[in-house]
């Protein structure tokens, strides 16, 4: 096993990685910005080092500062968490070039999946279903109009280098497409330094379903079930559950097999997620993208399969076999994760502030992965995620009941908080039925 680990992230995911590493006897090193000095993860690591000011470009995205911290503290490995540098192929290469272990997939796999157009083409060649769309960057609005005419409206306009729900727009006709093309291309150039644009078929009523994969040290790729991720605002997830209430029998077998093929196509190692769109009307699913890192929603898979995915990540990175039998995977019960964000529960606008009250719920089947506590401050410099509330039950009915009780028992004061939204969602007839899609939040509003 790895002996010392630098966690190149912050907040909830840093605490999560540190917790597993400590259980395994691995020395932990935290890096933090000046704005995060008082957060729990800084004190919980065996050693902590400040890598810069609040601006993430000068701290958590500062590859030179993080590598310097790794060297000065004698770290053997680097775990990137999610966001920041986690899907930066150049950073992964640099970590390994400096003699450190990268706890994640190889840089080539990260690069291959980081461009949506290249990823689509690779998946199509591997026999993974992809939606109708362009196979090369769309060079102009006129070229986008030609592509849309061949695909058929409505279409989705996407930044090829985008991720996390950013850099996308929907066009219902030619006029809207011209507007969305210029908007998405401009956003992509500013945010990602790459203005490449993809035109793809758009599904007005669709579900967002993903499969957790794990590329083992011996070269095998295994699928650890699916997660339903259709509760979203502005294309960003708010609630995830596993298994998906829309997936059974043959569909699950096809989804998991496609995800394994996707991983094998890029010789995938470590944890990753194959994201798909599912059309309930036709029962077709299509490859959306691959996230070459640990997902925010990984705990629902952990609870259903009884695994610790961070431990499995470390074992793969160390060249060790998994701590489970890949031939005897058996899901158990139902899990739901709610992202507790510092944002208005109606309009979902960020609302940072000092945390004056923080009381976490407890009880059978309840888990909280948090990044904050009373006396800390949610600053405006980073993502609004404060904690993840995860529940597990014998079935979906029990999981929803436990989620309701846990939401009622979670007390947060100071920053704005979206807990009231979840109280509403968990009583919503469409959600309770399990027959919802990515438009459910908009319909609630």
From TrEMBL:
Domain Biotin carboxylation: 1-445
Annotated keywords: ATP-binding, Biotin, Ligase, Nucleotide-binding
EC number, UniProt record: 6.3.4.14
Keyword ATP-binding recorded: yes
InterPro entries, alphabetized: ATP-grasp (IPR011761), BC-like_N (IPR005481), Biotin_carboxylase_complex (IPR050856), Biotin_carboxylation_dom (IPR011764), Biotin_COase_C (IPR005482), CPAse_ATP-bd (IPR005479), PreATP-grasp_dom_sf (IPR016185), Rudment_hybrid_motif (IPR011054)
UniProt domain ATP-grasp: residue ranges: 120-318
SMART domains, A to Z: Biotin_carb_C
Superkingdom per UniProt: Bacteria
Name under which the protein is recorded: biotin carboxylase
Lineage: Bacteria, Bacillati, Actinomycetota, Actinomycetes, Micromonosporales
């Amino acid at each position: 096993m790895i002996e010392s680990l630098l966690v190149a992230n912050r907040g909830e995911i840093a605490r999560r990685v540190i917790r597993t590493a400590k259980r395994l006897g691995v020395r932990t090193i935290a890096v933090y910005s000046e704005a995060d000095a008082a957060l729990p993860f800084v004190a919980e690591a065996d050693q902590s080092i400040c890598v810069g000011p609040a601006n993430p470009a000068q701290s958590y995205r500062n590859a030179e500062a993080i590598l310097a911290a790794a060297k000065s503290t004698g770290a053997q490995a680097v775990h990137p968490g999610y966001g920041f540098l986690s899907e930066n192929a150049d950073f992964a290469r640099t970590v390994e070039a400096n003699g450190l272990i990268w706890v994640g997939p190889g840089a080539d796999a990260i690069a291959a999946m980081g461009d949506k157009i290249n990823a689509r083409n690779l998946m199509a060649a591997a026999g993974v279903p992809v939606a109708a769309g362009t196979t090369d960057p769309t060079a102009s609005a006129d070229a986008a109009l030609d592509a849309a005419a061949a695909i058929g409206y409505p279409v989705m306009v996407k930044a090829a280098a985008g991720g996390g729900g950013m850099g996308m727009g929907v066009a219902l006709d030619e006029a809207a497409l011209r507007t969305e093309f210029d908007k998405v291309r401009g956003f992509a150039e500013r945010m990602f330094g790459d203005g490449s644009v993809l035109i793809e078929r758009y599904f007005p009523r669709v579900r967002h379903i993903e499969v957790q994969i794990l590329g083992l040290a011996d070269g095998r790729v295994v699928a650890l079930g699916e997660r339903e991720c259709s509760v979203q605002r502005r294309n960003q997830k708010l609630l995830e559950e596993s298994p998906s209430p829309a997936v059974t029998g043959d569909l699950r077998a096809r989804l998991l097999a496609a995800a394994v093929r996707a991983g094998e196509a890029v010789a995938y190692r470590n944890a990753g997620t194959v994201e798909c769109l599912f059309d309930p009307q036709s029962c077709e699913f299509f490859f959306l993208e691959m996230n070459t890192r640990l997902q925010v929603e990984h705990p629902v898979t952990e609870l259903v399969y009884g695994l610790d995915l961070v431990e499995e990540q470390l074992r793969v990175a160390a060249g060790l076999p998994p701590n489970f039998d890949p031939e005897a995977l058996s899901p158990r019960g139902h899990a739901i994760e709610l992202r507790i964000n510092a944002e208005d529960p109606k309009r979902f606008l960020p609302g940072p502030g000092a945390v004056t009250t923080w009381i976490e719920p407890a009880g059978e089947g309840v888990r909280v992965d948090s990044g904050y506590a009373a006396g800390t401050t949610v600053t405006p410099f980073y993502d609004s995620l404060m904690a993840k509330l995860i529940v597990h039950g014998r079935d979906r009915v029990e999981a929803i009941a436990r989620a309701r009780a846990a939401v009622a028992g979670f007390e947060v004061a100071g920053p704005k908080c979206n807990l009231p939204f979840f109280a509403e969602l968990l009583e919503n007839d469409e959600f309770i039925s399990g027959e919802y899609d990515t438009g459910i939040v908009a319909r609630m509003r």
